[in-house]
Amino acid sequence: MNLHRMLLERAAAGRPLRVALIGAGKFGAMYLAQARVTPGIHVAAVADLSPPRAAESLARTGWPAEQYSAASLAEALAQGSTHITDDALAVIATGGIDVVIDATGSPAAGIRHALACCAHGKHIVMVNVEADALAGPLLAQKARAAGVVYSLAYGDQPALICEMVDWARAAGFEVVAAGKGTKYLPGYHQSTPETVWQHYGFTPEQVAAGDFNAQMFNSFLDGTKSAIEMAAVANAAGLAPAPEGLLFPPCGVDDLARVLRPRAAGGQLHHAGQVEVISSVERDGRPVFRDLRWGVYVTFAAADVRNRAYVERCFKEYGLVTDDSGRYTAMYKPCHLIGLELGISVASAGLRREPTGAPTGWLGDVVATAKRDLKAGEMLDGEGGCTVYGKLMPAADSLEAGGLPIGLAHRLKLKRPVAAGRPVGWDDVEVDLSSEAVKVRREMETAFGKASG
Q1: Cα–Cα dist 314/141, whole Å
Q2: Handedness of CA 130, 135, 138, 143 (dihedral sign)
Q3: Could you tell me the pTM of the whole model?
Q4: Which of 108, 166, 245, 384 sits at a 20 to 30 Å CA gap from 406?
Q5: pLDDT tens-place string over residues 169-202
Q6: Dihedral of the CA atoms 134, 279, 397, 258 (nearest 10)?
Q7: Which domains, from first to last, does the chain contain?
């Protein structure tokens, strides 16, 4: 509750937090829009593979051209201006930067940047949840050993879910389930970039006129993004996925406590303490009443049988919606503001040295799963593509099956056919064992393998 006061103190002392943003896409641009008007923050560098795109993002979000005209990072740090570059590693290696934001969306890039931050003593805010799902538990462990903060990104749903889980536990409740909403139908798992727009209802004219990335949008629709985000929550909040993965039950906010309770109590959860995503549409396509498509939730219950009756009476007295037994109830947040809220993570890491969520173990994994019958010799095209989608699995099950993580399923050639609906394994593809991302992932499997079981 004191972050703003702390930022004001840093501003008054002439010691703002010096921030480097890597990746000037939508999330990065949204952060830039708020960082410009946040006291105690100095965006010293914006690194992007396309420096002109970085300049466009700064201009689009209200930054005056003279603010980002610094010829060098040293000049930007000295003058309080912003340096634009395509060399992220050079920025990380430069003294004077306090917090690095990775908003690239590339798992391999995220791993590379996180390791560099550990080597150079920089806190890292990992917007790149794809990298976190691939190797986050190991990256967070390495950051702690290096004395720096590794943090999930506030404004993105995983960090907001972790905050709600922490609130419930700190208040003494038992967390029964936590997750988010999305639009889901079973057929979406087979969606491709060629078919995605019909599911969103966009016309060809709208797509042609807008800045739309079909593969990115498809990763949200086909379930991959939900799986990745719930793996991040599972690993940060200690909530285990169901053995069958995400079920996406249709559910509105008034039914959270009824639907998201264990099956033994009449709900749809495999177990208490589970991550789950709810759908904003019924299986026949009808909209769910009071859906939570853009929001996050936690369901919880009294933790102690000795005071349960008293706590449940308080639920009723203060207007909480419960299940029919009165035992289970829920809190939810109806929306999230993506990069507009990211400054909370930057301030928390830089001022408090606390993450807004970070992996503490390896409970959830996301495995590449065939969208159709795949033939030997085909190339996998990663998240949101035509060949595979990401399925959430308990990490122990993924490890035992030798599942190929979705974060590595890019430009890999299949050595053998894989039937539709089946997970792709490490042994099914030709893997470059010299790849840094592959090495880090293999290191995590070794380091956390026993714990995940």
Answers
A1: 40
A2: negative
A3: 0.95
A4: 166
A5: 999 999 999 999 999 999 999 999 989 988 887 8
A6: 130
A7: 3-155+339-352 (3.40.50.720), 158-184+223-335 (no CATH), 364-452 (3.90.1210.10)
